[in-house]
Write a structure and sequence with these properties.
The complex is a heterodimer of chains A (525) and B (424). In chain A, helix 6 crosses helix 15, helix 13 packs across helix 14 and helix 19 packs across helix 20. The longest helix of chain A is centred in the C-terminal third of the chain and has 18 residues. Chain A has 20 helices and 15 strands. Chain A is an alpha/beta fold and 525 residues long. The radius of gyration of chain A is 27 Å and the shape is globular. Chain A has four domains: 118 residues, Rossmann fold, CATH 3.40.50.1980; 109 residues, Nitrogenase molybdenum iron protein domain (Rossmann fold); 138 residues, Nitrogenase molybdenum iron protein domain (Rossmann fold); 60 residues, Helicase, Ruva Protein, domain 3. By secondary structure, chain B is α/β, with parallel strands linked by helices. Chain B folds into three domains: 142 residues, Rossmann fold, CATH 3.40.50; 122 residues, Rossmann fold, CATH 3.40.50.1980; 90 residues, Nitrogenase molybdenum iron protein domain (Rossmann fold, 3-Layer(aba) Sandwich). Helices cover 45% and strands 15% of the residues of chain B. Chain B contains 17 helices and 14 strands. In chain B, helix 7 packs parallel to helix 9 and helix 10 packs antiparallel against helix 11. Classes of the chains: A alpha/beta (525), B alpha/beta (424). The interface between A and B is large, with 59 and 65 residues. Strand 1 of chain A pairs antiparallel with strand 3 of chain B.
Chain lengths: 525, 424
């Protein structure tokens, strides 16, 4: 038993719903009680889908417990087939039905329907949403795809895009465009937009593009074995990764790399002098493994931020994430405990958070700017405009999205210069954001504070400081704390942390104004 | 009198009873407003990842404060041996109360999985109450989808509190049902002006101002979905004042009059207190009449507010009721509202979603009230919809909200007209 306030992922059957809802002519039948239908609104409200998800529920109640529930499932399967006449169906248990003894596989076989009915194994008490999507897609591909003759021209399948995915709709369009430039057509894009009959044709592509390892890797691996199709390992998010991806495609297909970078603006936007102020900004990155690994590379190498923390909530991606984190000298945070993420962010004192909707909550609480880079999603993550994360346009989008939450360059300078201005100060917020400016809070100087003039090297030895030293704690003298507060908020975290690191390194536990400026000189760059 | 002017009264109308796929929330959803209403309470669902995900989806991830609800998510090892589950629960509760010392009431909320596993949360609540008394009182109730629909979760919650309320012989009035703070204040002000009192609220904003109950207690429901709570109060000797629910000018007046009659308030005083707000309510509703009058109304089952709201929309806004469905029809509690509903209303209890969608398509109403899962798909098919959860999340009771309530229904119609280039 584990206490959860917010969750990064839903249960596995929601993953199955994401696959089914992305597809056409497939009906998913879920065996569960009333209330499980809540998940429909994720698709109709958050993603603004204009049709009900193709999901039927058996909807059992307390009075059916015992023998009736199996009959309800059988009826639901028969009714769904009769009403929707799908090319195939899938059937799964939700968490409550998993505790009953009903056998969806036996029940669906007994019905003897004229279409494939794919039973899904989705262990609700040990696995989560991404697993559910990945496993559902794998099971469908395994049931329907067979080895086939390749298409005469070079084609590929795009694997992993689902309903309720973070910008999947636009990523598919962007990757399709990238491949078209190289003369490669998309055979099937799945699950997004595919029918069961399309899945039967997967085998005729020359290779697979694994867009989202979270939801498509098991299917890609199955196709690699069953249909001898290689799949791409690079996810084209960011300029560098997009170029690497095209090189990988070239290697697989033997076709030369052909690109059209005429609309790629991100490198110049990064290089232009207005962006100088972005240099070394401390950024904390959290989300699903794929998006975090890509974001860290962009942050560090394409925008010039300093990555001070990174982590993911999906344990399946722990290994590649740890490898990537090591490149930045970091220990990866792998957890789905929102409070643990909050603690890590607070400790890292970043100037920008790149995260999920959860981290937006954390950012709001800590007063930090934040941009969303990964699911879990909210209605705002489904913009009306074209806003891919992948490919060259994706790189443009990411630059804009990540810079927008920050205070603008020149404004940042003015805030630094005139720290005591009562109207124009950091707590007033960035000028290009909404929100009413608030007057600066005066911090009164307590008259009793007669700070000893000792420098950091010769700490005065009042007993509390000695105690603190004995406990290995670092204390800020009041006047040093006041000086720290004069530093604008977007660099205050960095200054505080650097000073404490410097003090710890020097064996000083009593931080004075001098320590602060010695640390500043020490870390000057 | 024109031929189609309606006659009223559905008391003996036939009710279509359906079972099948339901597009409704389970009772856990009511935690979303209960945890805001009771400021020293924490709601701990003992359930699955699905329960946690439902609460998050219903609440939106946009509540930035740390919520006063959470889910103790059952894991594989909990399914193996149930003795352990109780120990685990004790540990999680201890951790939680340590982090939130401001919590004075803890609700253990049963879910579908905890019910199927026969996890005895009543026993757990008793044990935990003993462990954490007197600082924290621990209750248990079910919000499981096997037993409860949406707002019924508030009913099972309040019903669980009734046996623990202090006993009293005082002749107090208890208003039952979680109301938005602004509505609660207006309600108390009206009752005070009528000279009725002392008045207590169930649930109270804090546990230390909870009502006491006894043979001289009278109570009136402010929400129509509180059948079990009503029964529990009656078992403690309290007497229910029966009335239509306080939606709209008419509903509010009849509700207040039922109380006034029980307390012997004079007609003059009643008139003096209610005349001005009644006039305001009528005026505010009138602003929406042009949009709503003569329009047909279809309600999918959702919040259990359907019957009193249909009564309001038919009688005060001139709408024509077609099918009005409700998850559960408590005939005794609904009797005063049913008596006022147009007699040609088609009443449905329960749901068989696909069949109901077919009937809806055939009726093709001007306005459809439905849940969030159905709203956009129906809009895309050309139907104007009002999603029902807003009716539960918005102050809609009593005189000063009567215009806002009408506005919730007129806005979708006005909006469609605006987007289609015309005025409503």
């Amino acid at each position: 038993m584990k206490l959860t306030l917010w969750t990064y992922e839903g249960p596995p059957h929601v993953g199955a719903m994401r696959v089914a809802t992305a597809m056409k002519d497939l009906q998913l039948v879920l065996h569960g009680p009333q209330g499980d239908t809540y998940a429909d609104l994720l698709f109709t409200m958050i993603e603004r889908r204009n049709a009900r998800p193709p999901v039927s529920f058996s909807t059992f109640e307390a009075s059916h417990m015992g023998t009736d529930t199996a009959i309800l499932l059988k009826d639901a399967l028969a009714a769904a087939h009769a009403r929707y006449k799908p090319q195939a169906m899938a059937v799964a248990l939700t968490c409550t039905a998993e505790l009953l003894q009903d056998d969806p596989n036996g029940i669906s076989r007994a019905l003897n329907l004229p279409i494939p009915v794919v039973p899904l194994e989705l262990p609700s008490y040990s696995r989560k949403e991404n697993y559910g999507a990945d496993e559902t897609f794998r099971a469908l591909v395994r049931a329907l795809a067979v080895p086939m003759e390749r298409t005469p021209e070079v084609t590929c399948n795009l694997l992993g895009a689902t309903a309720l995915g973070f910008r999947h709709r636009d990523d598919v369009a962007e990757v399709t465009k990238l491949l078209a430039t190289m003369g490669i057509k998309v055979n099937v894009c799945a699950p997004l937009g595919a029918s069961p009959d399309d899945l039967r044709k997967l085998g005729q592509a020359h290779f697979n593009v694994l867009m989202y390892p979270e939801t498509g890797e098991s299917a890609a691996r199955h196709l690699e074995r069953a249909c001898k199709q290689p799949f791409t390992k690079v996810v084209p998010i960011g300029v560098g990764a997009t170029r690497d991806f095209l090189a990988e495609v070239s290697q697989i297909t033997g076709l030369p790399v052909v690109t059209d970078e005429s609309t790629l603006r991100q490198p110049w936007w990064s290089a232009s002098v207005d962006s100088t102020y972005l240099t070394g900004k401390r950024v904390f990155i959290f989300g699903d493994g794929t998006h975090v690994i890509a974001a860290a590379r962009i942050a560090a190498k394409e925008i010039g931020f300093e990555v001070v923390g990174m982590g993911c909530y999906n344990r399946e991606m722990a290994r590649p994430l740890r490898t990537a984190a090591a490149e930045y000298g970091l220990e990866a945070l792998v957890t789905d405990d929102y409070l643990e993420v909050e603690k890590a962010i607070e400790a890292a004192a970043p100037e920008l958070i790149l995260g999920t909707q959860m981290e937006r909550n954390i950012a709001k609480k800590l007063g930090l700017p934040c941009a969303v880079i990964s699911a879990p999603v909210h209605v705002q993550d489904f913009p009306a405009r074209y806003a891919p994360q992948m490919g060259f346009e994706g790189a443009n989008v990411l630059f804009d999205t990540w810079v927008h939450p920050l205070v603008m360059g020149l404004e940042e300078h003015l805030l630094t210069m005139f720290r005591e201005d009562f109207e124009f100060h950091d707590a007033a917020g960035a000028s290009h954001h909404g929100g009413k400016a608030v007057a600066r809070e005066e911090t009164p100087v307590a008259p009793a504070e007669t700070a000893p003039a000792a420098t950091s090297d010769t700490p005065a030895a009042p007993s509390p400081v000695v105690d603190a030293q004995a406990r290995g704690e670092i204390r800020w003298r009041p006047e040093a704390e006041r000086e720290l507060r004069k530093i604008p908020f977007f660099v205050r975290g960095k200054a505080k942390r650097n000073t404490e690191l410097y003090a710890a390194h020097k064996g000083v536990c009593d931080i004075s104004v001098e320590t602060l400026y010695e640390a500043k000189a020490h870390y000057a760059r | 009198m024109s031929l189609d002017s309606p006659t009223f009264g559905c008391t003996d109308s036939p009710v279509r009873r359906e079972r099948g796929q339901k597009a409704v929330f389970c009772g856990l959803t009511s935690i979303v407003w209960l945890h805001r209403k009771m400021q020293d309470a924490f709601f701990l669902v003992v359930g699955s990842r699905t329960c946690a995900h439902l609460l998050q989806a219903a609440a939106g991830v946009m509540i930035f404060a740390e919520p006063r609800f959470g889910t103790a998510v059952l894991e594989e090892q909990d399914l193996a041996g149930l003795a352990d589950a109780h120990k685990e629960l004790d540990r999680e509760v201890a951790k939680l109360l340590e982090r939130r010392p401001d919590i004075r009431q803890l609700f253990l909320v049963g879910s579908c999985p905890s019910e199927v596993l026969k996890l005895d949360l009543d026993r757990a609540a008793e044990r935990l109450s003993g462990l954490h008394a007197p600082h924290v009182r621990v209750y248990s109730y079910t919000g499981s989808g096997l037993d409860t629909t949406f707002t019924q979760g508030e009913d099972t919650c309040l019903a669980a509190m009734v046996p623990t309320l202090d006993a009293t012989d005082a002749a107090e009035l208890v208003v039952v049902g979680a109301l938005p703070d602004v509505v609660e204040d207006q309600c108390l002000s009206l009752l005070t002006q009528l000279g009725v009192g002392p008045v207590r609220m169930l649930p109270a904003r804090r546990s230390d101002i909870e009502p006491a109950v006894g043979p001289n207690t009278r109570f009136i429901l402010a929400q129509p979905f509180l059948g079990e709570t009503s029964g529990a109060l009656e078992r403690r000797g309290a007497k229910r004042i029966s009335a239509p629910f306080p939606f709209g000018e008419e509903g509010t007046t009849l509700w207040l009059r039922a109380v006034a009659d029980a307390y012997g308030v004079s007609a003059e005083k009643f008139e003096a207190v209610t005349a001005a707000p009644r006039a305001r309510a009528k005026k505010a509703i009138a602003a929406h009449l042009e949009t709503l009058s003569g329009k047909s109304l279809f309600m999918f089952p959702d919040s259990q507010l359907e019957i009193p709201l249909a009564r309001f929309l038919a009688r005060e806004c001139g709408m024509k009721t077609t099918e009005i469905a409700t998850p559960f029809l408590h005939k005794a509690i609904m009797a005063p509202d049913l008596a006022l509903l147009p007699s040609n209303t088609a009443l449905t209890e329960g749901q068989d979603l696909e069949a109901q969608l077919d009937r809806h398509e055939a009726i093709n109403p001007d306005l459809t009230v439905c849940g969030l899962g159905l709203a956009n798909p129906l809009e895309a098919k050309g139907h104007a919809t009002k999603w029902a959860i807003e009716l539960v999340f918005t102050p809609v009771h009593f005189y000063e909200q009567a215009g806002d309530l009408a506005g919730l229904f007129s806005r979708p119609l006005r909006r469609r007209a605006l987007l289609n280039g015309g005025a409503a």
